Amino acid sequence: MYKTSLIFAAVCLVACCSAADESDAIVTQYRSEVNEDGSYNYDYATSNNIQAQESGVGGSYATGSYGYTAPDGQPINLEYTADENGYQPRGDHLPTPPPIPDYILRALQYIEAHPFTRIQLKK
Question: Staple partner for 38: which of 58, 91, 98, 117, CB 3.0–4.6 Å?
Answer without folding.
Answer: 58
